[in-house]
């Protein structure tokens, strides 16, 4: 049995975080956090950086070897790290080196040796507890021991080890921020489930979920808890869904499935709606009766999917790493507008390709390959019907996703179905799925999607709050393209022009008696100024995707001497928009990093900015069919169809001229389906200054300040500011030198009219600091950077208000 592993870099980064905290935090650290792998006393008081760095480099080198499957070399390197830690009398290091050797043996399927090393670590810790600042090493080592027993299906021994971990935790007074007990309870619940003891499984998983929720609230405070990462709760949530289903408690399982779905996004939407007292909202997950009411209010059949993965005893399920796990079954709920709730499941035969691979193959079969920038324009696929290979892939997905619930779906094609996918199911082209008779799903149903059931309720509220003054349309087509560096070792190259998008924009503008923004006029500043005034926004340009959380997914606009022309997702979500509909007629705009929290990227950012309905594309569509589909869509909209009906009719019309699904199935409506009378009556454009020198950071009304970030950052993170309510702090890694970082931020903030407090400027060989005054909220902006202690060539940077 093959076991995936927890990346050692997570453990090493815990060590580094202590050093980074010292460099970035001017206040002294007097006490170790018991939930950290190591703390200041261990790293600074006991070892100098000159002693520590060679050990950390050995750990990093061994990790690299293991990831490259050079297991023998990895073992030798970790053995050298163990010997060095022993010479230094470095207890934490000895534990870490043994842990990594054990993980390497696990990955190479040597269970006995892995078990032996973890047992050595447990005995070592218990013998030298006073030398460890992190007391959670004992329960976590017992978890690792239980993992091996679980992999061997020895659930009784696994449960015995986990009960020992509980006993240790209760004996030692751990920090309330420690998640060790929550993790042990989770492992207990999983093992009881696998052993067939459902009551015990339910008790432990429920306790684990409650513990994770409590930790999250304690770490950030009750007011901000809904805005932070829910990754800790995702895995336990999915396991408990299985327990409830095994007990035939299907409605409770549905409530649980909704509970952690897009929770951070829901919290953001609810908090923004609550800023308008006329439309109060809650971020509490809906119960079964409220779910039924949402289906009734939407007058739609809701279909919720929950993806269940293989048990993986060594790798916790995180929002970002679901691709590494094999999906084994789908849990499916159908909620009808009449109030009936039905449950079905779809098992994925282990001998076949994984569900992830089936989705990928289905997309590839119709020509939807890859993501990101295309160096050549997409071509129209021939007008013949799809070939047998395409049909087989689309039918296989239909069999897994639709066939189990086919008899529960409405028979009237005008009745809506709202799919709530999960993980990679967001990439499924639902309109193109084919039944056994070869009929496409869009031919039988009106389709739209949503990140969660509750997001439907919130986007409905968003539509009600839209200002009626916004009545025009903003149309952007084929801007003068900006340049981008495709790879670090290549010079920037200009994105290819989109002449078809320009023709599309001109044709749509004629329908609304206005002029589009084209070429050099479609600058970021002009678009930002216009966005808040438009009822409809149509953007026909390149969409670029990123792999660091979706924050830097962006739309390509015309560059100026003041900006590079890219409007990023992190900038969009900061805006206060009044548009009822945004159409992103661009390459791959519907894709971003996809997680347990939903699609992170442009569509999420637009809905977060106040837009109730967004149409995005799941792949790059050829020019001619896109123009045909979009023209038909707006004609339908102006004729009185709601957004979902208008899109379906446009797809059916385009299908007649361009039958292959790549030409018509990419577009999906996310959010509210209904159209207001104001939307259907839209005519004319929006007034803009059309001044490329407009300061784009001040032209738009924003929820919070967007800090500038240099190009090519990694590990980018955002978190609600604990010092200035309503603002957002950021953290990232950059390969720029300290001098380059200082130059970047000096230029960025001087352009914005801020003043540097030179008395607080600091630059040393391993850290830097800048402070600026004059921000719109009157607070200081502090930029701090520190060197990576593993010598990997990047700087850790934080930007915050104080």
Automatic annotation (TrEMBL):
Annotated signal peptide: 1-20
InterPro entries in UniProt: CHAT_dom, TPR-like_helical_dom_sf, TPR_rpt
Keywords tagged on the record: Signal
Domain CHAT: residue ranges: 392-672
SUPFAM superfamilies registered for this protein in UniProt: TPR-like
SMART domains: TPR (SM00028)
Superkingdom: Bacteria
The protein, known as: CHAT domain-containing protein
């Amino acid at each position: 049995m093959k076991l995936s592993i927890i990346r050692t870099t997570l453990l090493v980064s815990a060590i580094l975080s202590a050093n980074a905290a010292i460099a970035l935090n001017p206040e002294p650290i007097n006490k170790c956090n018991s939930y950290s792998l190591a703390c200041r006393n261990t790293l600074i008081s006991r070892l100098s950086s000159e002693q520590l760095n060679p050990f950390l480099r050995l750990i990093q080198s061994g990790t690299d070897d293991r990831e490259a499957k050079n297991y023998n070399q990895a073992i030798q390197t970790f053995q050298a790290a163990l010997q060095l830690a022993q010479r230094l009398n470095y207890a934490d290091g000895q534990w870490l080196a043994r842990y990594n050797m054990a993980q390497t043996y696990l990955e190479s399927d040597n269970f006995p040796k892995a078990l032996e090393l973890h047992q050595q670590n447990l005995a070592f810790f218990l013998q030298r507890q006073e030398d460890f600042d992190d007391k959670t090493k004992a329960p976590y080592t017992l978890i690792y021991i239980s993992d091996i027993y679980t992999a061997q299906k020895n659930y009784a021994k696994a449960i015995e080890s986990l009960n020992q971990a509980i006993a240790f935790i209760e004996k030692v007074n751990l920090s309330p921020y420690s998640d060790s007990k929550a993790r042990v309870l989770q492992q207990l619940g999983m093992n009881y489930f696998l052993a067939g003891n459902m009551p015990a499984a339910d008790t432990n998983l429920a306790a684990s979920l409650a513990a994770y929720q409590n930790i999250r609230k304690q770490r950030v405070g009750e007011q901000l808890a809904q805005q932070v990462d829910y990754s800790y709760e995702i895995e336990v949530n999915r396991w408990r869904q299985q327990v409830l289903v095994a007990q035939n408690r299907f409605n409770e399982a549905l409530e649980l499935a909704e509970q952690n779905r897009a929770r951070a996004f829901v919290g953001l939407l609810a908090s923004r709606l609550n800023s308008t007292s006329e439309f109060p909202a809650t971020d509490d997950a809906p119960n079964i009766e409220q779910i039924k009411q949402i289906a009734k209010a939407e007058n739609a059949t809701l279909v919720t999917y929950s993806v269940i993965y293989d048990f993986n005893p060594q790798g916790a399920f995180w929002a970002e790493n679901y691709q590494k796990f094999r999906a084994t079954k789908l849990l499916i709920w159908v909620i009808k507008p009449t109030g009936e709730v039905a449950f079905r499941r779809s098992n994925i035969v282990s001998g076949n390709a994984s569900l992830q691979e089936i989705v990928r193959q289905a997309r590839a079969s119709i020509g939807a390959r890859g993501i990101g920038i295309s160096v050549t324009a997409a071509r129209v696929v021939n007008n013949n019907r799809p070939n047998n290979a395409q049909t087989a892939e689309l039918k296989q997905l239909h069999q897994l996703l639709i066939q189990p619930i086919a008899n529960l779906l409405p028979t009237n094609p005008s009745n809506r179905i709202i799919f709530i996918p999960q993980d990679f199911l967001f990439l499924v082209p639902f309109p193109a799925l084919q039944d056994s008779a070869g009929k496409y799903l869009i031919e039988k149903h009106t389709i739209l999607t949503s990140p969660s059931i509750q997001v439907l309720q919130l986007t409905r509220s968003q539509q009600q709050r839209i200002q009626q003054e916004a009545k025009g349309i903003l149309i952007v087509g084929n801007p003068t393209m900006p340049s981008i560096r495709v790879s670090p070792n290549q010079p920037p190259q200009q994105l290819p022009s989109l002449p078809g998008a320009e023709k599309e924009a001109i044709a749509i503008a004629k329908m609304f008696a206005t002029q589009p923004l084209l070429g050099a006029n479609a600058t970021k500043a002009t678009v930002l100024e216009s966005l808040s005034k438009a009822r409809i926004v149509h953007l026909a340009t390149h969409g670029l995707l990123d792999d660091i959380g979706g924050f830097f997914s962006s739309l390509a606009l015309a560059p100026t001497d003041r900006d590079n022309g890219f409007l990023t997702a992190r900038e969009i979500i900061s805006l206060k928009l009044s548009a009822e509909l945004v159409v992103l007629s661009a390459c791959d705009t519907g894709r971003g990093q996809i997680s347990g929290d939903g699609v992170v990227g442009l569509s999420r950012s637009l809905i977060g900015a106040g837009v109730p309905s967004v149409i995005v594309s799941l792949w790059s569509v050829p020019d001619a069919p896109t123009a045909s589909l979009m023209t038909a869509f707006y004609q339908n909209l102006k004729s009185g169809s709601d957004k979902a009906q208008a899109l379906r009719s446009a797809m059916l019309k385009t299908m007649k001229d361009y039958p292959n699904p790549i030409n018509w199935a990419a577009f999906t409506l996310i959010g509210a389906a209904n159209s207001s009378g104001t939307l259907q009556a839209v005519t004319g454009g929006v007034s803009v200054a059309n001044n490329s020198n407009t300061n784009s950071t001040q032209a738009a009304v924003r929820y919070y300040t967007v800090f500038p970030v240099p190009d090519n950052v990694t590990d980018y993170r955002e978190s609600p500011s604990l010092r200035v309510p309503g603002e957002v702090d950021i953290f990232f890694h950059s390969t720029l030198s300290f001098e380059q970082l200082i130059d970047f931020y000096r230029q960025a903030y001087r352009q914005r009219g801020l003043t540097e407090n030179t008395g607080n400027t600091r630059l040393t060989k391993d850290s830097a600091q800048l402070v600026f005054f004059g921000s719109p909220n009157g607070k200081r902006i502090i930029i701090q950077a520190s060197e990576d202690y593993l010598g990997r060539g990047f700087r850790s940077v934080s930007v915050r208000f104080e």
